[in-house]
Amino acid sequence: MKKxxxxxxxxxxxxxxxxxxxxxxxxxxxxATAKTVDGSKVSxxxxxxxxxxxxxxxxxxxxxxKDKGIHVEVIACGAGExxxxxxxxxxxxxxxxxxxxxxxxxxxxLAKEYALELTxxxxxxxxxxxxLTIDGKIYSFPFCVEGRGIIYNKEAIxxxxxxxxxxxxxxxxxxxxxxxxxxxxxxxxxxxxIAKEDWSLGAHQLGFIYDAYxxxxxxxxxxxxxxxxxxDPLTVDRFNQFVATMDLMLEYNFAKADPxxxxxxxxxxxxACGNVAFWPNGCWAWPNLVEGGADVxxxxxxxxxxxGDDTSDFANNMIQASASKQIMVDKVQxxxxxxxxxxxxINYLVYDANGQKMFVEETALIPAAKNNPNAxxxxxxxxxxxxTAAGLLYTSCFIAPSDHWSVxxxxxxxxxxxxxxxxxxxSALSQYWKAQN
Length: 437
Hints:
The protein is α/β, with parallel strands linked by helices. Helices cover 46% and strands 13% of the residues. Strands 1, 2, 3, 6, 7, 8, 9, 10 and 11 form a nine-stranded mixed β-sheet that branches. Strand 4 (133-134) and strand 5 (137-138) form a beta hairpin. Helix 2 (54-68) packs antiparallel against helix 14 (353-363).
């Protein structure tokens, strides 16, 4: 009898401990999700389509396992692999990831068939302005906010010019042209680096035609629908402005002699070392710049991807930023325990102090969840945070088929290498969109 009473007391004590721990958690998921029905540890997978944060994600996953008892295997989407193709292949082989970091376009294409609905999750209030809705429902978590424009190295510019550089002074095609001319005269012969990768050219650069239509996703849909209906790109102002800016950068391209020999990693190195002053890119490039030798205390930031000569144009005074990556939870091939663990991982990034801090410090990304108290540490992230506070961002995130960047990226590669004309590029763009009808 004494043994029975002692055992019952022990069980009650343990329940009190567990209950106390649960009440103290700032994660909205129960720690019970760390175990399957048979009591074994839950293991989930995360497909990562952002190669530059692979190491950071692995560190977060390791800490998450220590804190929550759930193992997360981070699977890298290989260089050159199309995320949409990668994940559909995994589904077809019966090996779909529990979580997947994908582009908004991919979520739109996959959500209804494969994604777990997340509309009822508490974190949706923290990401309200950035939630991707499909027929009024939420199927993905806005993973991060990313901005793009033209990155500058202020020290390289000022040491070449022998004067102070004010990034705000570059607010038109003409002002950008003037500083490129001045840099060349002062000894930096070719101060722009244009990377050859199709995903950079076909999405991040060419995408300004859509995103800068009026600065909204709805506006980007307007111009895309006009192109689908047969509108000639040569009659679209943003197309002509984009090509003019691209032509200007090609004239001052560091890899002018061999445009298709200039890869992304070299761009990071040349900008970090100060061999070039400008690199059209986004805040996701910071880890690459660090690898190239950039210091976190260095003076790097953004100028707008200028379009035309109207200095009052929002596109010439702001940069584009949006929730460019989303996390989807699989509902088809994962177990209920894995789905619960996947939700707990998302909650860890949103609510847990370790998750919040590591997200910012280990990935150098800007969280979409507004409750994260950690400020960006790198200069590119800080620039976007400052612009957010000042209202100097436009948040369009154009939605295109998953092959847009590869098809149009190839067309852009032909153009930057001098193997096609502006008319040819316009024709390729027109044919692409008309084929989507």
